[in-house]
Amino acid sequence: MTIIHKHFADNTSEHSVATQLRRQRFDVFMEMLKDLPRPVKILDIGGSQGYWEMMADRTLLDREFQITLLNIENQAVSIPSFTAAIGDGRAMPEFADKQFDIVFSNSTIEHVGSFEDQKRMADEVRRVGKRYYIQTPNLFFPVEPHFVFPLFQFFPIAFRAWLLQHFDLGWYTKIPDYQKALHEVKSIRLLHRAEFKQLFPEAIIFEEKFYGMVKSFVSFTP
């Protein structure tokens, strides 16, 4: 992990820029929940218990929330109000219509595949949740948030794979095999504002800014 990554993008660090911005976003989320009856039933697509422990007071987690974590691999949970489920945010037949008070997802929709895959996830979010709060990084922010490299998302994809073959980048240690490196860089599809609005046309879009530049978007329904 580079010094830049540790300071800027490491969301496991209490003092990183990423964590501070996440806390600000979480305040917006908490404002949405203030008038909902307790316990609030939350579906977190792509989330972890550790995120909630960092963001929320333990009393809230124990008494006021019932959180289901949906991931493609099992997540360890140790707090009774958390449930781990294995599934795919693009198709969630295991959940009923409007089963959750709110669907929450932080930096996940850019990982699910093509724009059509992202649309499938958006449709499922609307179906299973009475409201939602979905965050994603901005395509046009100058530092790519996963590889933590300036303008990385605009390089030709073969060059991106070459860089990942030869250097540790952000969250990734270098991957010497070209096809594996190519798979990793192709697995992330960042969104710009117009696309995000197309996915969630009925939502309010909150722009998270860093030194005047839009770092990420949050689509939410009040």
From TrEMBL:
Ranges for the Methyltransferase type domain?
Answer: 82-130
E.C. number(s) listed in UniProt: 2.1.-.-
Which UniProt keywords are listed? Methyltransferase, Transferase
GO MF terms listed in the record are: S-adenosylmethionine-dependent methyltransferase activity
SUPFAM superfamilies linked to this entry: S-adenosyl-L-methionine-dependent methyltransferases
Q: Which InterPro entries match?
A: Methyltransf_11 (IPR013216), SAM-dependent_MTases_sf (IPR029063)
Q: Do you know which Gene3D superfamilies this protein is assigned to?
A: Vaccinia Virus protein VP39 (3.40.50.150)
GO terms classed as biological process: methylation
One Pfam family from the record: Methyltransf_11
From the Swiss-Prot or TrEMBL record, give the protein name. Answer: Class I SAM-dependent methyltransferase
**Upper taxonomic lineage:** Bacteria, Bacillati, Cyanobacteriota, Cyanophyceae, Pseudanabaenales
